[in-house]
Request: fold
Amino acid sequence: MRMNAEQYEESLRKLNLNVYMFGKKVENVVDDPIIRPSMNAVAATYEFSLKPEYEDLLTARSHLTGKTINRFCHIHQNTDDLIKKTKMGRLMGSLTGCCFQRCVGMDALNALSMTTFDIDAKHGTRYYERFKDYLCHVQEKDLTCDGAMTDPKGDRSLPPHKQPDPDMFLHVVEERPDGILVQGAKAHQTGAVNSHEIIVMPTIAMREEDADYAVSFALPSDADGITYIMGRQSCDTRKLEKGQLDRGNRIYGGHEALVVFDRVFVPWERVFMFKEYEFAGQLVEQFASYHRQSYACKAGVGDVLIGATQIAAEYNGAQKASHIKDKIIEMNHLNETLFCGSIACAAQGHREPSGTYLVNTLLANVCKQNVTRFPYEIARLAQDIAGGLMVTLPSEEDLRSEEVGPLMKKYFKGNSEVSTEDRMKILRLIENLTLGTAAVGYLTESMHGAGSPQAQRIMIARQTNMEAKKEVAKKLCGITPG
Ligand SMILES: Cc1cc2nc3c(=O)[nH]c(=O)nc-3n(C[C@H](O)[C@H](O)[C@H](O)COP(=O)(O)OP(=O)(O)OC[C@H]3O[C@@H](n4cnc5c(N)ncnc54)[C@H](O)[C@@H]3O)c2cc1C
Reply:
């Protein structure tokens, strides 16, 4: 069954999540004004998948059941699927102007479809069958999954087993006939409270001493013992204000949480890796490669920012200036380069033994490395073109005030054919994307999400065939083997 946006919202209401924000328990997560925009963004992945014009990108045929499913629940069966995933990410970013949160679970499902198969091939275990049963459940119910990889990590120089506090990496604390108990936390979890399921994976490659930390599993997001502590975002309390103008993006947003597991029980049928430490690195790398491809979404958010910047220039009356035109060209150039990287790693994907298609991992890392930089440059150019009013603008309440509202309307007028209020709206959207709640997704998530820049540089160094490059250079200039 594919859900529509209303059904998705209703399904979330049935969850009994233990969520905290601003020091208080959130009793009604779905209707909380601060969380609501992030729920709206995930709901958009349901809503738009049912529109005929988006169906080709946002749905797929399940390789397990043959049924039409939401692409966010799909396992990539060929490079066309991978390319459609890239295009879907850009489309959703451009429709919502924020992080729509559902890609991380899709990437976790796809990575597990390969790693569970490979663990079984080595150890004779039955993880892949378990995983397929779980996948059928996710596809059948059209569930949103949180992909939970990042541990708090404590002292970054120490491996899990050497941390003074053993909970700095999530680990197994008890093994029972019917399942395991786990303890620890996952940090920065995108869309966690908008998800039906949480899929946990290890965060780094591990050795034998860390075997207790080499664990992967899936649980309903409201399983006993799980607590969510919502992240604080710049300008978040604007969502509590009566007026809408100062929010910038009135409908959508993204939101992260710290997810704490306090001796949480996981039944064996939901365990996909249990102490096979030598596969932790593979799972991390494959998940990270998919997730680095997923950052095509930032090109979609970039589309919104570029559009907003062009409008701001027009409202200012500066759009014909040659340097403005050139800066807009530069923004588009950078934005399309982001898209190129994601399309390239998808087009160069290959089939893994399980049958799942994996992106080209070198190109996925190159793609994400660009993502750690270009949105910042695009944002810089947007702020250049928008002008200082983007950050010195008084509030909507001042605009509505009888005393000072008329002064604002007079002095903040740009192009005489445009209302001051519309000018304020577009500047607030640019502020939202480059400094406000959406900047979490557009900028800092671009930097650290799917791994900080250095993580990609390590992978680029590892995957570059340096010997082949040296060999051809020697051959061409006549250096003979000595
Ligand atoms: C908005 C946002 C959304 C996210 N969503 C998710 C999600 O849905 N699921 C998920 O699992 N994760 C998510 N992440 C987490 C993301 O993967 C991590 O932020 C990233 O892996 C970096 O980890 P960290 O934030 O703990 O930074 P740190 O590890 O503290 O890194 C900070 C700096 O220290 C460097 N550093 C760290 N360790 C070492 C070391 N051992 N040696 C040398 N240098 C080191 C890093 O390269 C970096 O420059 C999200 C992050 C953000 C910001």
